[in-house]
Recover the amino acids of this structure.
């Protein structure tokens, strides 16, 4: 039973570590893509303003 518990604890630790690594990776990618996100928001706002001016 002790070996099973120890194995379960190791798996839990690996999953926690993997979660942190995925969070780091995702955060880095979002930061790299921030200019793309901002340009998309800017374009969307301009389109909405143009549509409102047509009314």
């Amino acid at each position: 039973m002790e070996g099973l518990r120890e194995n379960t604890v190791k798996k839990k630790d690996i999953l926690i570590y993997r979660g942190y690594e995925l969070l780091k990776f995702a955060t880095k990618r979002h930061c790299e893509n921030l200019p793309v996100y901002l340009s998309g928001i800017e374009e969307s706002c301009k389109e909405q303003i143009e549509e409102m001016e047509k009314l």
